[in-house]
C-alpha cells in the first residue's frame, strides 16, 4: 500500500472491537471489507496527524456516522459507508501517487530578469526608495523576490489578493505578517511603520501582486517610505502603473506617488535567453524539445508555460518507460488548451 507521508502519530486512533449488534447485523463480506478499510483510514490519519473530525469532513461523511462506522456501532447499511471510505482512500492515494512522480521545478535560477529585479530591489532598499516591478507574467518576479528576501536582511514581503485591496485590508494583512497587534486601530499604521524600520538601516517592504491594491493603499505604502525610511517595491502586472496614473482621489495624490518612483522595471531583458536557460535547468537537451519549449516560453506566461507543460508531460508519460520526447510535450500543450484564453 502507498505510504502517503511519514510523520509522528498524534491523536487517539486505537480501533475498538465492534459491538455484538454490529457484527450480527451486517453480512460477513461487508465486515471483512470494513475491517480492512478502517485500518487503512486509521493508518493514513496517524501519518497525516489528522483528527477524526477532520477525516470525517475530508471523507464527506457525517461526523456521527463516521464515528459509528469507525467504532463498529453503525446499524445502518454498512456497504454504503464502506463505499464512501473506499472512494476517499483511493482518491487520496491516487493524488499522492501523482505528487510522487511530479518532477520538481528547477531551483532559483539567476536569469537576466532576476538580476534586474534584484538590482531594482537593492536600489529601493539602499535609498529607502519607491520602485515598481511590472514585468510580464511568468517571468519569475515572485521567485526572484523570495530569493532576495532569503539572502538579504530586513526584507519583509506580503502578497495581496483581490479581497485585500483597500487600505484597511492591506494594513490588516501587513499587521498579521509582522505580528503587529494594537488595541486602538488608529495606531495601526504608525505601529506597522515602526515595526518595519525597527533596529535596521535599509529595510525593504515588498508588496507582491500589488495590482490588487487600490490607489489609497499605494499611497499608504508610499507613506512608509517617506516617514519611516523603508524601501517599498510594488510587484505585479502593468495594472499597477495604470492605477497609479489614472486612479486615485485627485491629481495631486497621483503626482505625489508618481514623483516618488525611483524606478519602474517594465522592460523585459533577455527573455529568450532566460527561457533557454530555464529549459536547460530542467535537464532537457533534445534540440526539438528545446525549440518547442522556447516557443512556448516566448508566449504570454513565459517560464510558467514551460514549467507547467513539462510537468504535465511527465505525468502523462508516467509508467510508459519512455524518456521525455517532443510528442509528450506537444500532447501536454494540446491538452492544456490555453492558446486562445
Summed up, what is this model?
With 341 residues, the chain is α/β, with parallel strands linked by helices. The chain is 57% helix and 8% strand. α6 (112-127) packs across α7 (141-151), α8 (167-177) packs across α10 and α14 (287-297) crosses α15 (302-317).
Provide structural commentary.
This protein is of the alpha/beta class and 341 residues long. The protein is 57% helix and 8% strand. It contains 16 helices and 5 strands. It has a 5-stranded parallel sheet, sandwiched between helices.
User: What is the end-to-end distance?
Assistant: 40 Å
Low-confidence stretches: 1-10
**Rg (CA only):** 27 Å
Sheet of most strands: 5 strands, parallel
Which sequence of SSEs, written as H and E, runs from N to C? Answer: HHHHHHEHEHHEHEHHEHHHH
Sheet with the most strands: spatial strand order:
2-3-4-1-5
Amino acid at each position: 500500500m502507498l505510504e502517503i507521508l511519514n510523520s509522528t502519530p498524534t491523536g487517539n486512533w486505537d480501533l475498538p472491537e465492534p459491538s455484538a449488534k454490529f457484527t450480527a447485523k451486517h453480512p460477513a463480506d461487508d465486515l471483512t471489507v470494513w475491517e480492512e478499510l478502517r485500518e487503512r483510514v486509521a493508518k493514513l490519519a496517524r501519518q497525516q496527524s489528522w483528527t477524526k473530525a477532520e477525516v470525517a469532513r475530508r471523507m464527506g461523511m457525517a461526523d456521527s456516522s463516521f464515528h459509528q462506522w469507525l467504532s463498529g456501532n453503525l446499524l445502518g447499511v454498512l456497504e454504503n459507508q464502506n463505499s464512501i471510505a473506499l472512494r476517499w482512500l483511493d482518491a487520496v492515494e491516487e493524488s499522492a501517487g501523482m505528487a510522487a512522480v511530479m518532477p520538481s521545478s528547477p531551483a532559483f535560477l539567476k536569469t537576466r530578469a532576476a538580476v534586474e529585479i534584484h538590482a531594482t530591489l537593492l536600489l529601493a532598499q539602499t535609498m529607502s526608495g519607491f520602485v515598481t516591478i511590472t514585468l510580464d507574467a511568468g517571468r519569475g518576479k515572485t521567485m526572484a523576490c523570495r530569493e532576495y528576501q532569503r539572502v538579504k536582511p530586513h526584507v519583509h514581503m506580503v502578497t495581496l489578493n483581490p479581497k485585500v485591496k483597500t487600505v484597511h485590508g492591506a494594513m490588516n494583512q501587513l499587521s498579521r505578517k509582522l505580528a503587529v497587534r494594537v488595541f486602538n486601530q488608529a495606531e495601526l499604521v504608525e505601529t506597522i511603520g515602526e515595526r518595519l524600520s525597527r533596529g535596521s538601516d535599509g529595510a525593504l517592504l515588498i508588496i507582491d501582486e500589488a495590482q490588487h491594491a487600490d490607489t489609497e493603499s499605494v499611497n499608504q505604502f508610499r507613506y512608509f517610505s517617506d516617514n519611516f525610511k523603508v524601501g517599498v517595491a510594488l510587484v505585479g502586472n502593468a495594472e499597477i502603473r495604470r492605477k497609479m496614473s489614472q486612479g486615485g482621489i485627485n491629481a495631486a495624490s497621483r503626482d505625489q506617488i508618481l514623483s516618488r518612483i525611483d524606478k519602474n522595471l517594465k522592460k523585459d531583458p533577455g527573455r529568450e535567453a532566460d527561457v533557454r536557460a530555464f529549459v536547460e535547468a530542467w535537464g532537457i537537451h533534445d534540440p526539438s524539445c528545446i525549440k518547442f519549449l522556447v516557443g512556448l516560453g516566448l508566449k504570454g506566461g513565459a517560464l510558467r508555460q514551460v514549467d507547467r507543460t513539462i510537468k504535465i508531460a511527465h505525468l502523462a508519460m508516467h509508467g510508459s518507460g519512455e524518456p521525455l520526447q517532443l510528442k509528450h510535450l506537444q500532447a501536454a500543450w494540446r491538452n492544456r488548451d490555453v492558446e486562445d484564453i
